[in-house]
Amino acid sequence: MISIKSHTEIEKLRKAGYITAGALDAAGSAIHAGMTTRELDRVVEKYITSHGAKPGFKGYGGFPAAACISVNDVVIHGIPGNYVIKEGDIVSVDTGAYINGYHGDSARTFAVGKISDEAERLLKSTQESLMIAVSMAAPGVRIGDLGAAIQKHNEDNGFGVVREFVGHGLGRDLHEDPEVPNFGKEGHGVRLREGMVICIEPMITAGDPAVRVLDDGWTVKTVDHSLAAHFEHAIAITKDGCMILSDPASY
Ligand code: MG
Ligand code: MG
Fold it and tell me: Using CA atoms, how far apart are residues 230 and 88, in angstroms rounded to an integer?
């Protein structure tokens, strides 16, 4: 069931999104070669708790940390740990602040120092595709329209679109209906309506889009070990477009 959020609920989601965005800013400022992914997770958690929120991911389905930190060929759901971040890595940080009963959820892939041209292009294409979908989102537009646009942009750039994991609705629960795939057909799927809150989150690979889940039950890697990028915004559908909930500039 797709819930339609009231103005009051959207304000609460905006607050959660604002703290989430700040936590990602903090991660982006702190990230450097030589730090572990666990240390980076602590930066995120400290930011969230010091702003009066709780890390919404910690304990969700048993996930042990405040952020999913996914390096290079890890697409999503990387568990922070002893990995030491290196110059040239691309590091995806996905997190959410939980406050007043509502979740934030946003992700960015950071470049650590000088990265390869391929990695640079992958990050650019993934982020561009997210913003294309955000710019389209409005009442009457279908979920399939968003997916088709994300798919086309990345495939035209020679990149792969992960099929097994998708975006979602957001609210009192971290994952609500509807599913928001990063692929699809124009004119298909649920029509967006004012008051819907969704997360759009392209997960894009430099090579083949096939992924596998490691034995830890979380870490999702590309099968061919190609690089992967992940950008995510939570948006609220408004009367004539949408509002990004996880962008400090739009607050
Ligand atoms: Mg996320
Ligand atoms: Mg999400």
Answer: 17
pTM over 0.85: yes
Instruction: Assess contact for 60 and 67: CB atoms under 8 A.
Output: no
pLDDT of residue 247: 87
Q: What is the mean pLDDT of residues 200-228?
A: 98
Going from the Cα of 127 to the center of ligand 2, the distance in angstroms, rounded, reads: 15
Q: How many CB atoms lie within 10 A of CB 155?
A: 16
- Compute, in angstroms, the gap from residue 199 CA to the centroid of ligand 2: 6
CATH homologous superfamily of 7-250 equals Creatinase/methionine aminopeptidase superfamily (3.90.230.10)
Tokens of 87: 């110059």
Q: Strand 176-180 relative to strand 203-205: parallel, antiparallel, unpaired?
A: unpaired
**CB contact at 8 A, 180 and 188:** no
C-alpha 109 – ligand 1 centre gap (Å):
12
73 C-alpha to ligand 2 centroid (Å): 19
| Cα of 167 from ligand 2 centre, angstroms | 6
In angstroms, how far is CA 135 from the centroid of its own chain? 16
